[in-house]
Amino acid sequence: MKKKSSPVPVVIGLVVGVALAAAGVWAYTEYMPRGDKAAAPAPEAGTTVQEEAAPAAFAVVDGPTPGQETPYTGVLASFARWHDADGEHIAILSRLESPSAGIEARHYRHDDSGWILVTERADGSVPGVQGATAGFYKDGPWVDDLDGDGRGEAIFAYWIDDSQEPGPKRLELVAFVGDGAYSISGGTGFDPADAPRITPVTALDGGMEAAPEVIRAESLGIWADAQFDLAEPPAFPEFYGFRRLDGAEFRGENPLWTLTVLPQYMILAMSGVAKPAVIRYESLRAEGSDIVIDGKGEVEAWSHGFRVTIQEVSVTAPGGQAFPFSATVDWSDGTRLSGWGRLAD
Fold it and tell me: Which residue, among 286, 298, 283, has the nearest Cα to 331 in the 3D structure?
């Protein structure tokens, strides 16, 4: 007969197994690496969990005309309102008419205590100058969150002219960014046909130099447009798309001639002709890779039509110097001038 096994070893095995399992659980809980954040306990029944509010997104908003809570000086020119991560904002542009022509710009922000003045800019003409004028370029301001940081920027440009005579104007651009302001300063160009040219001037302050690239690029784009639109005499409208030609100079020989391209007109100087011809634009267009300009002007009291064709092809001048562009000037009387040149520096 087969002998029955004793129950004692089974019981001992069970006890040992339970003990080992308990020891394993204790070791896991004691020595297992923990994360940085402890798991949050489950909310008790009936408890409302408050979620953290997301920051307010940037948005341009409509609103009433500025009032007593956001005062300004002079005559209101324009304003813009926006919301962003810092709250509610308004930028106000106004014109000053006494005692001298000028402008004022203010940036207000609304906080727990109400509206506070964050930044302002005031500027004017030389005191006592008669006939001075000032104004904002395209009325501005331009408001956007260009760098995507949840906080808006307001950009505007203004000009001040101390003289009633034709000439360059003082030009400024300001960007209200955060609690400060970045600037570009300089002036517009002046291109008289019978006097030396005054070229536009551009200088960035330290804040604008260090500003995020997208803010600086937008500011420089507005600045370039303002310099083009406010130049005197007014530029030929179609020249805007060919601004890289501004100041380009071409020349040739047999006979010796020089053609200077300006936003308002071209100036053709020829050997043996006392007075340069001013060629006023009739059309300016691209034909494939060529630039074709049509205009009219007078040479020694004779009226002529002109067609100038500019090509970006390398040309070696008789002196051996290479130039990146060629130019052909065709007159309505059949004269053709061929030469070479480059864009302005």
Answer: 298
Query: What helix, strand, coil percent values describe the chain, rounded to 5?
Result: 15, 45, 40
Q: How far apart are CA 99 and CA 128, in angstroms?
A: 8
What number of other Cβ atoms are within 10 A of residue 88's Cβ? Answer: 16
Give alpha helix (H) positions in the chain: 8-31, 206-210, 213-230
Angstrom distances, CA of residue 45 to CA of 41, 48, 93: 12, 9, 56
pTM equals: 0.76
Q: What is the pLDDT along the chain (345 residues), one digit of tens a residue?
A: 333 333 433 333 433 343 434 444 334 444 444 334 334 444 455 445 455 555 568 999 999 999 999 999 999 999 999 999 999 999 999 999 878 899 999 999 998 889 999 999 999 998 878 889 999 999 889 999 999 999 999 999 999 999 888 899 999 999 999 999 999 999 999 988 888 889 999 999 999 999 999 999 999 999 999 999 999 999 999 999 999 999 999 999 989 999 999 999 999 999 999 999 999 999 999 999 999 999 999 999 899 999 999 999 999 999 899 999 999 999 999 999 999 999 987
Q: How far apart are CA 312 and CA 302, in angstroms?
A: 31
Angle at 316 (CA atoms; ends 311, 317), nearest 5 degrees: 105
Q: What whole-number distance in Å separates Cα of residue 329 and Cα of residue 339?
A: 8
Among candidates 171, 182, 256, 266, which has minimal Cα distance to 219?
182
22 contacts: CB under 8 Å, gap ≥ 6: none
**Coil, helix or strand at residue 11:** helix
| Alpha carbon distance 48, 172 (integer Å) | 54
Q: Which residues pair with 291 in a beta bridge?
A: 286, 310
SS3 state of residue 182: strand
CA 110 to chain centre: 27
Query: Could you give the CA distance from residue 84 to residue 107 in angstroms, rounded to a whole number?
Result: 14
